[in-house]
Amino acid sequence: MAYRTIIGGTQFAFASLKTLLAKASPERSGDILAGLAADGPLERLAAQHCLADVPLSDFADDVLEVDGDAVTDLIAAQRRPDALAPVSSLTVGQFRDWLLAPDTSGAAIADLAWGLTPEMVAAVSKIMRAQDLIAVSAKIEIVTRFRSTIGLKGRVSTRNQPNHPTDDSRGIALSALDGLLMGAGDAVIGVNPATDSLPDYIRICEVLEVIRTQLAIPTQHCCLGHVSTALAAMEQAAPVDLVFQSVAGSEKANDGFGVTLAMLDEAYEAVGKLGRAPEGANLMYFETGQGAALSAEAHHGMDQQTMEVRAYGVARRYRPLLVNTVVGFIGPEYLADGKQIIRAGLEDLFCGKMMGLPMGVDVCYTNHSYADQEDMDVLMTTLAAAGVNFLITVPGADDIMLNYQSLSFHDAMFLRETLGKPPAPEFEAWMADTGIGQPGVVLPTLDTALAQLKLPAA
Amino acid sequence: MSSPDHISRTDLAGLTQARLTLGPRGRALDTASSLRFALDHAQAREAVLSELDVPSLQQALDATGHTSRVVTSAAGARDMFIRRPDLGRLLPDADRDVLRDAGPVDVALVLGDGLSAIAVALNGVAFMDALARRLVEGGLRVGPVVLARQARVALGDKIAMALGATTVVMALGERPGLSAADSLGIYVTHQPSANTQDSGRNCISNVREAGTSIADAVRQTENLIRAMRETGLSGVTLSQSLAATAVPAGARDAPGIETKR
User: Fold this and answer.
1) What does the pLDDT look like over A386-429, one tens digit per residue?
2) Helices and strands in chain B: count of H runs, count of E runs
3) Cα–Cα distance between B154 and B164 in angstroms, integer?
4) Residues of B numbered 165-194 whose beta carbons fall under 8 angstroms of chain A's beta carbons: which are they?
5) Are the beta carbons of B261 and A453 separated by less than 8 Å?
6) pTM exceeding 0.90
7) How many A-B residue pairs are in contact by the CB < 8 A criterion?
8) Cis amide prior to B4 (ω within 30 degrees)
9) CA–CA separation, A6 vs A12, rounded Å?
10) What is the ipTM of this complex?
């Protein structure tokens, strides 16, 4: 069925809901690259006007229109129409107004999560300005727990990301210590391995386990290798806290990552049996990012932001501890500049929280993007205002393995001191005990801290 | 090995290039670190936005006895090239005509700007000169060196097709990091076609003064070309085949779209 509107005497028609969503998307290079973007501001606004009048219930059916797509099937199976009851008669535009209404509580919004489909959430986000996205995100509290409690209102956690180009144990440990001594790492200490070999995966887990246990840190760690490597490592009794996987919004895109829902199901079950976490803890970690499906030629004519929210449908199946979008990592052909990266970061946070996810953001960019660290300052500050669950931090904002720029460990201090956002309460207490971040306390230098660590044999 | 009793600060630099905080842990990077970061980023941006200096490259190729031809991808200009990688892989008809009478050759040699024309300016001609000599000594026809503006890796496939080449070597600037903006990447592809996938290429990366040397890169490239022409394989299948026997160092699969995931 076609969607039509008339603006200034010109009729605009959109052949399908999928087309309407794409044309209504705020401008970004990836949709232009895919040939899906509006021809200009007028067609975009026409699509947004049209979209605002579409009933939410129109999105209940298959919007991707690809037969047999496992993610579409999962979205349909997840959906609990009763959860949507408070807003099920609204249009997309009325839904936006309801979300922003002062008497709509964060709890009421959170209760909708399993009634909402990714396409409903993406639709409403497309007619929301940055301030709208911040205002609604800030209302919603999504709390997850392992050794630390993440997502409590008024707090922002950090991932300490001590990547090293050769996965050198001491190199990883040095960067991790650098961050810990500045109070970064209450969400997770998580390493992206340079290789995906099983021995390296296990060794990295062991290095991180030594750091966690010897320093008695109330946090969790993760080697962000492939889920199949994590499964093999768990079989060998490696100290695996969290199982990680990158996920995307279509079956074909997940194929590109070499992952199926069955594999994720298996890993979820396996990590639950390890018994390393308190009862009821959240045990999975996912990363996503706009453009992932398009780069795998697996977007099926759907815009990159809607595809991103479909990935959240996959993630929420596993009650994850952490989910983050790697928002500027994929490059300027998907998000061209600081403006597009900032908008996408806010969209991803909003949509993730609407889907019920403990949403974090890797505030980042590559050197071929039209962006710089000042854009990241702005995005970090707006995300903190919007109640982001966690942010990623690396030494000096420079990831020497993945060759891109993220936030720095110093930014964890900025979050605490200038923005008034402390870390998880357990980690905050650990910092108080150890004197980290306290004025006048002399902490060990990095060389001393490394020398005191008893790392496993290489 | 367990950790040593003491590690000096100079030893730390040998363990990692990470921008660690060795001095006071303040609320922000100290001024010197902050300005160094900004300078490193500015250098990376300069490299990304740099254009091939075609007259200098042609002169340098002339001086070493190589003819050259110049083409520009369908991206046309730098900004379009950065936002539209698909156009950087296409060779316009007029540019194909530039190559019409230059073939047939066995191996097409292409120097492209990629994401750092600075890398090409520093090491491109030296690499191509040394490689061309080795290939010609080995009895292969190489033809002119093609200088390609606004070029992605797959533009080399179309250039090779225009030259009637069965193997193509595309050397181009890699995406600059904060610490290095002068890395040349070498992509070797056998039987290139309009639909060649990245998995069909072999790659030697990080060719620069502080990384893989030109001599090593030339040797590895020549080995790959010989292996491809002997086995008919290219990319992942060649790597797997070589892994079963002896792998030339550095002959690994071409990376796809770089992804953290």
Assistant:
1) 999 999 999 999 999 898 999 999 999 999 999 999 999 999 99
2) 9, 7
3) 16
4) 175-179, 181
5) no
6) yes
7) 160
8) no
9) 6
10) 0.94
